[in-house]
Amino acid sequence: MEKTLNGKIALVTGGSRNIGKLTALDLAAKGADVIITYRERAKAANETVAEIEALGSRAAALAVDFGDSAGVAGLADAVMKQVRDWGSQDLDILVNNAGTLRIGGFDQITGDDLDAIYTTNFKSVVLLTQALAPHLAEGGRIVNLSSGLANGAFPPLIAYGPLKAALQSMTLYWAQIFGARRITVNAVAPGGLDDDFNAKLFDEIIPGARDYISGNTALGRVGLPEDVSGVIAFLCEPKASFVTGATIRIDGGFKL
């Protein structure tokens, strides 16, 4: 693979599994050094670090709970300490991937559910980006993880989709704010992916979900994390320098 990101340093939140892990590996394969965050899966995070290093890039893993936004400032400090330890003053790539899920209809969702999703999927993302903004390199990259549910209703995830819509909207604001520094800001909006993030939804809540998605998708299958990570990595490359403020659907043509 062409090393288009040699000399770049990336932060991928939630990088121990699923989309985050594969994004970290894709960026490393292109030459970037990668910092990942994890909440509680230390073993998985360390395995991801080892896989990144096997690709010839430097790697580090930092623990953080995005459900407690008070820890975000400390995370930003830890990230920049690692960046400086690697001999740089700038972070080149920020992938806001970490997120949480609460399943329940309108009459089931609780205040605690709403608080958890708001804090993890929106508030902490905003605060982390704000804290790291002064340290982002000229011509850097920000990619936010939105969802197809930001633009379509699915009742069991009524607490999830609207907050992804808020992050998708914030992507537009950031694209304008960071444009003067040639920093691009984009979002990706995956459809329902067959991974362990959605396992409970697919296997327990709606057992026929895989068949429903594949039957209503132009490409005839359910998406996978690797369908998303490659697009994120592309958005971080020099060749994507004129793409900003975009939200890219990655759903195989669901309900076209």
From TrEMBL:
A single Gene Ontology MF term assigned here is: oxidoreductase activity
Q: Is Acyltransferase a UniProt keyword of this protein? A: no
Q: Which Gene3D superfamilies match?
A: NAD(P)-binding Rossmann-like Domain (3.40.50.720)
Tell me any Pfam family this protein matches: adh_short_C2
Q: Which residues form the Ketoreductase domain?
A: 8-196
Listed A to Z, the keywords are: Oxidoreductase
Under the heading SMART domains, the entry gives: PKS_KR
Q: Which InterPro entries match?
A: KR_dom, NAD(P)-bd_dom_sf, SDR_fam
Q: What family is this?
A: Belongs to the short-chain dehydrogenases/reductases (SDR) family.
Put simply, this protein is called: 3-oxoacyl-ACP reductase
Q: Which organism is it from?
A: Litoreibacter roseus
